[in-house]
Amino acid sequence: MNFKDNLATFNTMNLQTHIKKDLWLAVQSTYEAGNFSHAILDAMHHLSNVLRDKTGADGDGAALVGQALGGESPRLRINKLQTETERNEQRGLESILRGMYQAIRNPRSHEQSGDSKETADAIIVFIDYLLGIIGKSEEPFVQEKFMGRIFDPDFFKSQHYAELLVNEIPSNKLFDVLIAIYRRKLEGDVYSIGLVVRALIIKLSDDQIKRYVAIVSEELSEITDEKDFKYNLHLLPPHLWVSLSETSRLRVENRVIRAIREGESRDNKCIKGALATWARKHFPYFTLKDQVGETFIEKLESDNLLSKYYVAELFLPQLSEVISSPTRIRRCVIIISESIRKSDGGMQTALLNNIYSLPEKLQKDFAESLKDLTDESNPAIYLPDGAPFLVSTQPKSDEDENLPF
User: Fold this and answer.
1) Strand pairing partners for 388?
2) Which candidate, 135, 247, 231, places its Cα nearest to that of 188?
3) How far is CA 34 from the centre of its chain?
4) Do residues 146 and 166 lie in contact, with contact meaning Cβ atoms separated by under 8 Å?
5) Number of helices and strands (H, E) in the chain?
6) What are phi and psi of 396, to 5 degrees?
7) Are strands 269-272 and 264-266 parallel, antiparallel or unpaired?
8) What is the pLDDT of residues 74-113, one digit of tens each?
9) Which has the closest alpha carbon to 320: 370, 286, 267, 283?
10) Which of 106-115, 149-158, 307-316 comes out lowest in average pLDDT?
11) How far apart are the first and last CA of the chain?
12) Helical packing angle, 345-354 and 326-341, nearest 10°
């Protein structure tokens, strides 16, 4: 086909049938209005958007092309970049795209142009060709491939490792990845997923966090399975609890209180009421915080040893967070101290295991309450302020008596 035949083809061709649907939608309005220069600009604008969407780059023009295809490790690779020929192809496409902005877009953005239909057709069809190459290019970040690394059985459980993974996600993909992980959460290890979710949330905008919380709220208003409740509690940072819808908060908090009422423990092993242990960090933000505290006191005052141990072994550090009244705190100190006075070894062990996690004021309250059971010369432990506490179960040896210090 000679030049005249080519020109005739452009004169009669239906552009819509020769280019991709998305590109046609981008240029349709100005093209059909006969504003062909503007249609070319619309096509270039569409090209820019595609580059940004695929790479997460935020530049424009030649700078955008450099971010997307330039450098030793480009965000978009049109081949494996292993041979000199392949690297030349990559550089060639980068140069062509830079030229498109410099020679095609920029002049029409800064000066009046009177492009004909034939010119617009030729340029837009060429842009469509370039979009075809870009569409087939390999992105360094592919969401489905990345998800495999989150649900990897060899995931290294550390916050640093999770942050390294999250740093590989383009900024415009962060929210999509978070929601994809959330929807598949039950398929993986909750602790690994939790590390990634926390690393992701830190990078989100306020609006994206609101959208995430809204999705969690909707699920919490409907779920019934305990595993669903546990995963949701673990994947929602405690400080965001108050951002949930009130109906969702009250529903879950009521479920947690029910778990506390049923709770039993022995030797630091939860027998019943495990759900509440997943909510420990959320307690300070609960609307029903006072009810949680009162339920704990009721269990400590019960005659069921396993109920008492449930609170003392699993929730002692949280008592001061859900019980604000000094009178109620005093009740807890008296109840636990009385149990220890009655030679309740389980309660004493629970207190000793958790004493360092208690606020200083509560430590001193217990020290004062159990002063009569404390052997200053042979204490079970020393509190952080140096005060002896209770009595060691190991008798003092003769060697200890002879030590000069």
Assistant:
1) 382
2) 231
3) 49
4) no
5) 21, 4
6) -70, 130
7) antiparallel
8) 888 888 888 999 999 999 999 999 999 999 999 998 887 7
9) 283
10) 106-115
11) 105
12) 130
